[in-house]
Amino acid sequence: MEKQKDHGPTIKNNARYEALRDEGYSKQKAARIANTKNPGKIGGKAERYEDRTRSALYEKAKEIGIKGRSKMDKEELIHALRKN
């Protein structure tokens, strides 16, 4: 059995983080999910990005810390939010 890596105090669930990284998630997104108490019960109820306004997408990008968001149009914001 392979020993699990310790990603320090910023990652609350190292096993979940590693699994998400193995699936191709970015470091930031894997960390966000790994630090969520119960990510399986949270999802599924959010409004689709395509149904949101550019302003709402901008605010979400700001919350996450996406750089260059002020110059992005709606489609670019959607792409940035999905890959982050």
UniProtKB/TrEMBL annotation:
Rho termination factor-like N-terminal domain: residues covered: 55-83
A Pfam family of this chain: Rho_N
Source domain of life: Bacteria
Biological processes annotated in GO: DNA-templated transcription termination
Gene3D superfamilies: 1.10.720.10
Record's protein name: Rho termination factor
